[in-house]
Amino acid sequence: MANIKKSYSHIGILSAMPEEVGIILDNLESVSSVKFGDLELFSGKFVLDNSREILLTIGWSGWGKVSSARATTRLLTSGLNSTPIDLLIFTGVAGAVDPKLKMWDIILADSLIQHDMDARPIFDRFVIPALNNKKIIPNMDLIDKTFNQLNKKLSHLKLSKFGNLHKGLIATGDMFVSNTTKLHQLSKDISGLYAVEMEGAAFAQVAFQEKVKWLVLRIISDGANESASSDFDNFLTEYKSYSFELIRCLLNVLA
Ligand code: SAH
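That is the input. Now the predicted structure with S-adenosyl-L-homocysteine docked in place:
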């Protein structure tokens, strides 16, 4: 059975924007990079708290499903380092749908849906034709263990800025959700929805189809309502100095 204790040796990390993942670069050793058109990927060694070294390959995809799917595919086949990527992570910010989520709360996806996928009448609404399924589900053993260990570590490390860690359903679509009508509609149409963003489910679909383990970890930056755009901008400015703290914590949990 899949086990988090299996030591990952090469982890791929993507985000949409450099603010969400960029600072990892300063913490990598022996960095090499490759360009695919306007997408640049970086790879190097990262030293964990227990002194073990792992390989990380990182990049920022840009916003939206096409960009994230493209970057995921490129990441998996970049040729940077001969060791294959054995775990893929997408991280970044998201808008809250469930009112219990507050800014700076963290959400680990236990499933993702593409809220703008609609191939009716051939398939039910939200069904992704390639998967014949609405939800993309990660390896739950990995998610449960990551959740439990990250929870312990977060409280232990007292990462003051971050709020509570949640596990739940994230919906992805090519839309910045910034009005209450849309927010309520999504919440009504998709039961148990926690948060919305623009890349996770496309990333997850590629990882799933490529048969590579994956997880999506998001931080709440706004309430997907009328003030989302300004909340988002203010949040991002502050978030970029904290994002690495969380990623480092996650990497140590996974290793
Ligand atoms: N401030 C910008 C919006 C950026 S949204 C503007 O108003 O033009 C883009 C990024 O943040 C995406 O990568 C998406 O995944 C994430 N995100 C954060 N909050 C979101 C929301 N409410 N709806 C959709 N995506 C959101």
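The pocket of S-adenosyl-L-homocysteine is lined by residues 16, 63, 92-95, 176-178, 196-199, 221-222, 224, 228-229, 232-233 (CB under 6 Å).
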